[in-house]
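User: I'm new to structure prediction. If I give you an amino acid sequence, what do you actually give back? Let's try with this one:
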Amino acid sequence: MDNSGYRKWNDNSEDVPRGHWACWEHWRYKSLAKLAPVVVLGLWVLVLSILLSKASKERGELLDHQDLLKANASKQATTLEVLQKKVGSCRTSCSEAQAQLQTTQAELGVAQKTLLEQGNALSELRERVTKDVAQACRDHEDIRSELLRALESAKLGNHTCEPCPTSWMPFEGSCYLFSDTQVKWEAAQKSCVDAGAHLVIVGGLEEQTFLTANTRGFGYWLGLKAVRHQGKIQSYEWVDGVQLNFSHWNVGEPNDSRGVENCIMMLRTGLWNDAPCDNENDNWICEKRRKC
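Assistant: Good question. You get back a string of structure tokens that encode the predicted 3D arrangement of the chain. For your 292 residues, that looks like this:
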């Protein structure tokens, strides 16, 4: 191929090919060479514009968030201040309450000590009164017995008394019958009444000793019953209406087992025990005054 019409293309004008096509190529190259920096610059401007726009938007959002955080921080600070005031007030109230509680505890301790001392004094007083009442009741029974004997003796103008009926045993102006059969308490009392007597009333230790010495290995009904109020035993009363003042209970008695033990019987040992009144396994003891 004939390359004589062309030269190597370089920066010198002498190297540009000749002819119309060569001129066009040369102009286009120079145009592209001038346009390339413009295009690159335009692209950079576009990229920078986008980045700046995005940065501006993010900055605005950050500023909004910053304002929101500041507002929240202000609210939190206000809330914290209120809470601190409440905590301070609560601490003050707690301190006052604690001081008051300590004072109350001290006063309660003094009151408990005083109450304990008063309770001990009351117990001692109750014990003394109980003993005095028991002694007074025994003295009353002794005086009553002596008075009855004196009155009966005065009627006849002498000190002689009729002997006790057959099978009855004498003791201190009274006659006693120890039964050989067993019946319920009510039947025992009726049997005594039919004989002009009543179930035995034990007035003291001497009479109790007499009764114990004359038992024959049986249990015996006494003339003593429980007085109940609203299902609970309030006291014990003899058949003549006199309240119980002397007693000779067995250990652990009376216990009112199952809430039905209203009648009192004497064990073979002489000690007393409460039992159901419909128990048919006990004998009985009648008592009546001797005629003088």
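You can read the tokens as a compact description of the fold. Here is one thing that stands out. The longest helix spans residues 20-156.
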